Amino acid sequence: MSERLLRWGGYLGGLVLALALPHLIYPVLALDILLWGLFAIALDLLLGYVGLLSFGHAMFWGAGGYAAGLLAKGIALDFPWAALAGMAAAVVLALPTGFLSVRRKGIYFAMVTLAFAQMVYYVVNEARSITGGENGLQDVPRTFAGQYIDDPTAFYYAALPLVLVGYWLAYRIVHSPFGHVLVAIRDNEARAQSLGYPTRWYKLLAFTLSAALSGLAGGLEALNHGFAALDLVHWSTSGTVVVMTILGGIGTLWGSVVGAAIFLLLRDALSTRTDAWGVVTGTMFIIVVLAFRRGVWGTLLQLLHQRRGLAGETGLEAGLAREPQTRPSEVEVAHPPS
Question: Strands, E, within the chain: which ranges?
Fold first, then answer.
């Protein structure tokens, strides 16, 4: 079977699973898995493809959630437009924060994003007349064409097209010449600069696109649960999505969805049996990281390609599964701007 047929077969299988998921588990949890998966994919665009670890992505997730909730509750805006408004709010927040953050690298970038996220958390907590403070924004309606969508399964299928568009956008970003330039910047930024690429602007655009997808996911998350809580912008939310991305496999894109599914299903199963579910999931996370050095999905991809004996895979995801670090000379990038 060719690589192309195998890839499209995987996409078709994923689509079938997404359609069947609310009949396999509770619909609210099913949509949570897809939304957290999109959030983790958004983070992976930075972490896996640019090499920037953000500890403050909760501010975009929360900005999308609060913006969508306020508009849906305040002016009865239909849920697709409310979610897109949350996406726009995340972009507006990302432009100034990203402009300042991408000037730093490594742990300094992570700390700057965490500092901005804590500032957003403080603002949201203090603006009680707007956000509800610690009580959150409650009774957020889900409407479409003036009709309330009360059934969780109906809302799952109504929101699914927006989620799939978010996945498609992430796929197109990664598999475009722009995505290849991001990998070159990750591996050797000095060399990318010598080729004529304005790397800071590329990183800012990647940061903004990542924030946009996070805002879309956050907006739908608030609508899915009917409220926007303060934990949307809490630092622990940023840590959770980092765990999901690492669990699935950094730089594998779809591994983020796998990591989100594993984490949320474990949390849901363990929280009904013990109050210390965090200890259990943390222990299992350590075991998985030690056993699967490239994450669950990344390791499975590596084993698959080793078994099939492919020496010349095409596609960024296959290359990343085979080699955790690709040299810039091996990455096909677009011609630099004149």
Answer: 143-144, 147-148
CB neighbours of 50 closer than 8 A, spacing ≥ 6? 182, 185, 186, 203, 206
Sign of CA dihedral 175, 94, 30, 71: negative
CATH number of residue 146's parent domain: 1.10.3470
Residue 164: Cβ-neighbour burial (10 angstroms; 0-12, 13-18, 19+): middle
In a domain, 336, yes or no: no
Torsion sign over Cα 338, 198, 49, 222: negative
The 3-state secondary structure of 210-264 reads: HHHHHHHHHHHHHHHHCCECHHHHCHHHHHHHHHHHHHHCCCCCCHHHHHHHHHH
Domain range for 152 is: 3-330
In a domain, 337, yes or no: no
Predicted TM-score (pTM) above 0.70: yes
Q: Where are the beta strands (DSSP E) in 147-296?
A: 147-148
How many Å separate Cα 264 from the centre of its chain?
A: 14
C-alpha span between 130 and 314 (Å, rounded): 50
Total residues found in the chain within this entry: 338
Residue 335 maps to a domain? no
Whole-number Å distance between alpha carbons of 180 and 200: 15
* Amino acid (one-letter) located at 126: E
Query: Residue type at 45?
Result: L
Gap between the Cα atoms of 317 and 175, Å rounded? 9
Whether the CB-CB separation of 67 and 223 falls below 8 Å is answered with: no
Total domains in the fold of the chain? 1
Q: Could you list the mean pLDDT of each consecutive 10-residue stretch along the chain, which spans 338 residues?
A: 74 91 94 96 94 94 96 92 96 96 92 95 93 90 89 95 96 94 93 93 96 96 93 92 91 91 89 75 78 83 74 43 41 44
> Tokens standing for 148?
């309330």
Q: What is the C-alpha separation between 191 and 135, in angstroms, rounded?
A: 50
d(CA 297, CA 249): 6
